């Protein structure tokens, strides 16, 4: 998968993140991409990109974050375990810090009960 960070939540940011995800791994033919109904995800540009990749778009009900509970939970972990522990001086410092948390710690070292006590990187390797 992929992640990105921007100063604002824009269509370009979500398109860039989707393109990064596509380039990072093979994906099956029948992909259903789930999101909330934010304007970035409902934009014509984003819908055209999903169509280009042959993906079906699924939406959460408006104002109902429980449909996307796993991602909401992940954001909670990121904020509680890392982001709220620091006062960032600028965007670049925040980006580098969050990059370290996701790439060097969360995906590589933090084991997950739901993944059989493997890290996400280990789980991806054994599941391939």
Topology, pairings included?
Blueprint: H1 11-24, E1 32-35, H2 39-42, H3 44-53, E2 56-59, H4 69-81, H5 91-106, H6 120-127
Model description:
- The protein folds into two domains: 1-63, Nucleotidyltransferase, domain 5; 68-128, no CATH class.
- It is mainly alpha-helical and 128 residues long.
- The chain has a two-stranded parallel ribbon.
- The mean pLDDT is 92.
- The protein has six helices and two strands.
- It has helices spanning 11-24, 39-42, 44-53, 69-81, 91-106, 120-127; strands at residues 32-35, 56-59.
- Residues 1-128 form the Integrase catalytic domain.
Question: Which features would summarize this protein structure in a list?
Answer:
single chain; 128 residues; mainly alpha; two-stranded parallel sheet
Number of helices: 6
How many β-strand runs? 2
Fourth-level CATH superfamily of the largest domain: Ribonuclease H-like superfamily/Ribonuclease H
Distance between the termini: 14 Å
* Structural classification: mainly alpha
Fraction in helix: 40-55%
CATH top level label of the largest domain? Alpha Beta
Proportion of β residues?
5-15%
- State the strand order across the main sheet: 1-2
The CATH topology of the largest domain is given as Nucleotidyltransferase, domain 5
Q: What is the succession of H and E elements?
A: HEHHEHHH
pLDDT averaged residue by residue: 92
Shape: globular
Report a brief summary of the structure.
The chain is mainly alpha-helical. The chain is 51% helix and 6% strand.
């Amino acid at each position: 998968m992929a992640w990105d960070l921007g100063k604002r939540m824009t269509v370009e940011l979500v398109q860039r993140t989707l393109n990064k995800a596509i380039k990072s791994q093979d994906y099956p033919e029948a992909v259903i991409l789930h999101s909330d109904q934010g304007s970035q995800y409902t934009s014509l540009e984003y819908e055209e990109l999903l169509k280009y990749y042959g993906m079906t778009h699924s939406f959460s009900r408006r104002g109902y974050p429980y449909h996307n509970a796993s991602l909401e939970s992940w954001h909670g972990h990121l904020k509680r375990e890392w982001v709220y522990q620091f006062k960032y001086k600028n965007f670049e410092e925040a980006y580098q810090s969050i990059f370290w948390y996701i790439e060097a710690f969360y995906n590589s070292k933090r084991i997950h009960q739901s993944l059989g006590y493997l890290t996400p990187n280990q789980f991806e390797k054994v599941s391939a």
